[in-house]
Amino acid sequence: MTDAPAPTRTPCPPQHGIIAAHARAEEVAAASADFLEQTVVGSLLLEGAGGTWAPATGLAPVPRAPSFAILFPGAVRVSDPAVPLEKTADYLRGAVAAIAPWARPGATVVLGSGASRRIPEGVDRAAAERRFADSVRTARDLAAEHGLEVLLEPLHQGETDLVNTLEQAADFLDAHELSGMRVVADLFHVMLERESFETVHRLAGRVGHIHVADTDRRPPGQGDWPLGEFLTALRDGGCAAHVSIECFTWQDIPAEGRAALEEVRAADPAAS
Questions:
Q1: Which domain holds residue 79?
Q2: Is the pTM of this model over 0.90?
């Protein structure tokens, strides 16, 4: 596969959104979010008979978004050399087709998906890393054909054994000639991996999107994690990316989301 042209990165003031499924768009809008970061698997892309995946149909219109999350289901093994790369590419073509109609120009697609990238038992680590790099490159190039930018997200060791920190993400991309790709900085994973904010600041220029949550992935303002220090390290390091709240404990998105967004905007030096 030849490299596709890189998507255009248009500078704009950072915005603050919430990650959720397409079906929760009205709740996210009621929380005063600037955008809904739509999840892909199980929302925009649905599994059909025989394990095939296809874009969802009949979805209600929502505003186009600057970012998308949960790109791969666990069953798509992106670090397994035994899985033909073309099989991964086929899945990605469907995923990109599902994302594109809802995306702003230059929107980012987060490649986290820890279960899908765990190294299979018995597979040599170096071989798994090479296959993961091939999968990342394929995702980058197929997304770029639609003007989208794929970002690599470090995930803590409880989710995956492959690329756990911002430092590891930068090293991985450099080692596999993917240094032009950017990464996601997620406070949840930074805290669980005990990565320093000095490292966050140093690598901020390579960050293309930001995820935040509070203690135990609760909404910001419901715990004691240093949200302001994290965002300040990124902004002072030159990162101008959008910020999405990612948590799975919502009881009432319109109410809790509004309060959480107020916390994030108050903590973000780049908030207008």
A1: 16-267
A2: yes
